[in-house]
Amino acid sequence: MSERFAAADGIRGLACLLVVSTHAIVIIATHLSSGLIGVPKVGVWLFFVLSAFLLTYKFSIGGFSMPIISKYFLGRALRILPIYFIFVVFYWLFGTANIDSVHDVVRSFLMEGAYAHLWTIPVEFKYYALLPALAWILVACKERFGLVLGVLLGLALLVVEQELWPYWLTPKVTSDTRWYLSCFTVGSISAIAFDFLRGKFKSIYRDAVGLFVLVGVACSAPAIWCASTVCDENGYLINKFVYFSIAFSVFILALIDGEGVVGGFLKGSFLSLIGRCSFSIYLIHWFFVMRVSLYFEGSYLAVFISIFCSLLAGYLVYRYVELPIENFRHRLASR
């Protein structure tokens, strides 16, 4: 059994646009870069939380039988690896991601190293191997002892993760999943609480939550936050994923059904399309941003062009490469 949430693709689309647009501004409009350092990572953290939420919830309603778990692992492999491998080779051939040798290609294939924006793929893919066990622990605790103890167990896991891998020591760029476990754990905790909270709040409160989180994300940019407080523009935001993950989990709980004005915006056709294409857009956008920056540094028009090209190219890759792979994956899963 599975469920399609009305605004899930739109939330992905929002995260994708946040990453692509802020990367373009930081790399091309360099005079603005100090005010946006770390903001692209905020979009990545939203991806992490949403992914954990959706997959944990799917397990919570579908169960943990061997056929389901087998389909899960096969599905994750087919969802991520083919298109990821294609882009590793693409960046080896055409540059911009520091994949400069066969050795780099092999390391990327083995989910080692942190090459430009591709560092996020090993982090997420390696977590997929852990997710069924974590989801089972949380779901089993909830079903046996109740939601409160299930959530408390999740929070205890969060505390242990931060004791072992505290967020403030997270390397600036790393493909080591351990540092980002807390992002995923927060998403999984949200998933087991979702059914209890679903439908309990009016649309106006959902809108208030959505706007509060979106305004908070905007105000967290160094250009705004460091203008009103004492902080280091070059580093204060890059490791605050625990706080953002909690905020994003509330955002997802409030809006993933697409209710209210903000929910309606998220489930709209534009953001939903971007969300469906988000993996391909994310993988290819670095190439356009870096290439454009070589010739038009500082140009606002160049920022727009790089974003437009990223979205268009990402859509084409999705339509003619990723979607056929996805259709094949779904045919296998239906057997």
Q: How would you characterize this protein structure?
A:
The chain has one domain. Helix content is 75%, strand content 0%. It has 14 helices and no strands. The protein has helices at residues 8-28, 39-62, 66-94, 102-109, 120-145, 147-164, 181-197, 203-220, 222-228, 241-255, 260-266, 269-276, 278-295, 300-333. The protein starts with 7 loop residues before the first helix and ends with a helix. The mean pLDDT is 94.
Count of helical stretches: 14
Mean pLDDT, rounded to whole units?
A: 94
Task: Return the domain count.
Answer: 1
Radius of gyration over C-alpha positions, nearest whole angstrom:
20 Å
> In whole angstroms, how far apart are the ends?
14 Å
Shape: globular
Structural class: mainly alpha
Model regions low in confidence, pLDDT < 50 over at least 5 residues: none
Helix coverage percent of residues? Answer: over 70%
* Number of extended strands: 0
Tell me the strand percentage band.
Answer: under 5%
Order of helices and strands: HHHHHHHHHHHHHH
Q: Describe the largest sheet.
A: none
Transmembrane segments: 12-32, 44-65, 77-94, 114-138, 145-167, 179-197, 209-230, 236-256, 268-288, 300-321
GO molecular function: acyltransferase activity, transferring groups other than amino-acyl groups; hydrolase activity
Protein name: Peptidoglycan/LPS O-acetylase OafA/YrhL, contains acyltransferase and SGNH-hydrolase domains
Keywords: Acyltransferase, Hydrolase, Membrane, Transferase, Transmembrane, Transmembrane helix
